Amino acid sequence: MAQENIKLTKKVYDKQTASDLLNRSFSELVNSDNFTNNTNLKNRLNQLFTLYDDLFYDIPKLGTQSHTILFQRSRDYIGDYVDSKDEEIEGLIDKIVELEEKLANQDQPDKEHPFYRNGIILQDREETWNLYYMDKATRRKIDGDTGSEVFNDLKSALGYKESDKIEDIVTKVSPNVIKQIPPGPRFGPEDIGAAETNVEAELATFEDSFNYNALQDGQLNPNNYPITEVTLPSWYDPNSYAPGSTNIRNQIEQANIANVSSYDKYREYLVNRIKIVWQSEKRFEILKGKYDNDIEYGFTESEQNKAKILKEAVIPKIRQAQETLVYYKRLWGYVNNKVSNSANAKTRMYLAQENFESNINTPVTNDERNEYGGWQRGRDNFPNIDLAGLTGYTGEGGNIY
């Protein structure tokens, strides 16, 4: 058999030429037709990561073929990559800016009015109940008049004694001059001796305030205050002293006492609840007014933003207090007068019991709730209760209800 020679030809490329012909990027690797088969792609990826693990510590940290280049190319391919450390750094930067602003403000002395220095009390010469505390060259309206707790506490804080005359404490100013002084935030009980609180701390106070629900209050149900009826036998004659008549008369007398007592107990409970909720609604309205004032006249943007958040938190409390007063008004109409005998007590209590479910389950309308807007309105809805004289801010246990 004759031998046949086969000539083999091998074409060799130098390093530079190979680099010009081959695309070494990831896109070439992924998009190549050689890797369209999923099995082949998986095998290649396994080989890639095995090789990467083997060479991990041999790959330089910096340079054209380094960990840095791999990281940058992968990051650019992923897109919108966010490093948790970057977020932490941004938060720290914001904190530094906030602290620098506070430090800068501390270094700057408070502004002073050219004639009325900070820390004095101005009184409107014509409307003497209008009092203002000078602070940072602004006039801050003081809650209440010269007889209010706020004024008396402020007077003591400024070093005045109870025996000091009002003329020695305030500076009387004409209303035209007062109008020329820039207004500042209102001055209330929170501004005396209270450390500055953050939004979270003040919101927490609302969490514990007015957790009362009229629909779940068993003592509000007149059916839990029983009325006693005495069944009279056919032979009973109130003018007779026949055997057994004395016993019947005793039963009637005891029933009369018990019925008036049940009526009085229910009425007293309702009076106390009305007063507590009235005070709470008043307190929430005062806070809302304070926050409105701080939003407009707050010294810093931070104070204004804080007031906006707190205002949104107090509005639902106002609404809840007003709705509770609507329920109380419905119930109060049956027991608003004192009774002198069992007959009146029974009549009124039976009406209250008969209509309780309807009164308490009928949704409150906007018109009913709006009767209490501004807390000053609505007092006439509760005849025989002195709501005008209530000045306290808190209910039972010192909490706002």
Concise summary:
Helix content is 52%, strand content 4%. It has 401 residues and is mainly alpha-helical.
Structural write-up:
The protein has 401 residues and is mainly α. 52% of the residues lie in helices and 4% in strands. It has four domains: 21-78, no CATH class; 82-108; 121-191, no CATH class; 199-398. The protein has a four-stranded mixed β-sheet. Strand 1 (121-124) and strand 2 form a beta hairpin. It is flat and about 150 Å long. Residues 392-401 have low confidence and may be disordered.
Number of helices: 13
Number of domains: 4
Q: Ranges with pLDDT <50 over ≥5 residues?
A: 392-401
Whole-Å distance between the termini? 116 Å
Order of helices and strands: HHHHHEEEHHEHHHHHH
Portion of residues in helices? 40-55%
Shape: flat
| Main sheet properties | 4 strands, mixed
How many strands? 4
Notable features of this structure?
401 residues; mainly alpha; 4 domains; four-stranded mixed beta sheet; 13 helices; 4 strands
SSE layout and pairing:
Layout: H1 15-21, H2 26-31, H3 38-55, H4 67-78, H5 84-107, E1 121-124, E2 131-135, E3 138-141, H6 149-157, H7 166-169, E4 170-173, H8 175-180, H9 199-207, H10 245-297, H11 301-335, H12 342-361, H13 366-370
Parallel strand pairs: 1-4
Antiparallel strand pairs: 1-2, 2-3
Helix pairs in contact: 9-11, 10-11, 10-12, 11-12
